[in-house]
Amino acid sequence: MRLVTWLLPALLVGCATPPTLRTPTMNPAAPAPTFDPTLVVPIVKWPATEPRPLSAAAFDGGGGSAAAVPGDLSAVLRQVATPWTAEDGDIAPLIARLHATLLSSGGVGIAAPQIGVGKRVFLVKHGTRRHVSQPAGVPPYIVAYVNPQVIYASPEQQEDYEACLSVTGIGGRLPRALHLRLRYLAPDALQGPPREVEAHDWDARIFQHELDHIDGHLYIDHLATLSRTPLSIEEMRLHRDAGHRERGLVAP
User: Fold this and answer.
1) Burial of 9 by CB count in 10 Å (0-12 exposed, 13-18 middle, 19+ buried)?
2) What DSSP designation does 107 have?
3) Within a domain: 167
4) 187 assigned to some structural domain
5) pLDDT, tens digit, 9 for 90 and up, residues 87-109
6) pLDDT tens digits along 185-239
7) Which of 60, 111, 156, 170 gives 230 a disulfide partner, CB atoms 3.0 to 4.6 angstroms apart?
8) Containing domain of residue 67, as a range?
């Protein structure tokens, strides 16, 4: 538990009062692109056996205990990503590649470093684990977040299971903040005012997983710091889904 409590204050801005949580909504000015298989790119992988335990030095963007081979795209997974700026040009091609690759992967989130781009951009598929008390028939939807910043993370945490598109074949259980609020830029309004979004439970966990990616961390680093052994992906999914049925995130 101390791990996540230690990590998040470095990211927080003005977190004295818990927010009234709202469901994130799609930007009506930016409809989701259709799936284009020609835009799918390989996901950058990191060895499951090479966690880098988290420390203050982990934020320096260095290679850590598991140095990547020079020129190897995997190095980007261990670097602190830089903000997207006007000098970077049109962001639409990056968003399109991330969108296509996420849909192809079957995952619930993807960050730019996972396709070899060291920028603070990620996509989240919302509503993949919707509480059974919420209205049925609302399909999951994908939203892009540019230069996201945590402005509130609840002290209340929750244990749950995670896996990663960049770490093959395993998963693990770790604590994350139960509620989260982010400030971010929308890709179609980079010069406009920042927007805010709140997330709870599973969606909040996805946000924190993707925030780790743009800070050069992987969830296996948390497992190593907590001295927890990863599970096979099959075993992890069994435990995750059993817990989600108990919490009403999937139908019994």
Assistant:
1) exposed
2) -
3) yes
4) yes
5) 999 999 999 999 999 999 999 99
6) 999 999 999 999 999 999 999 999 999 999 999 999 999 999 999 999 999 999 9
7) 170
8) 2-17+56-247
CA dihedral 208, 97, 108, 251 (to 10 degrees): 150
Query: To the nearest 5 percent, what fractions of the chain are helix, strand and coil?
Result: 30, 25, 45
Question: Domain for residue 49, yes or no?
Answer: no
Count of domains observed in the chain: 1
Q: What is the CATH number of the domain that holds 8?
A: 3.90.45.10
- The arithmetic mean of pLDDT across residues 36-42, rounded, is 93
Dist. CA 90–CA 23, nearest whole Å: 29
Q: Which residue has the tokens 């970077």?
A: 88
Active site residues: 210
The per-residue pLDDT for range 123-134, each reduced to its tens digit, is 999 988 877 777
Neighbours of 191 (CB within 10 A): 6
Q: Evaluate whether 111 touches 216 at the Cβ level (below 8 Å).
A: no
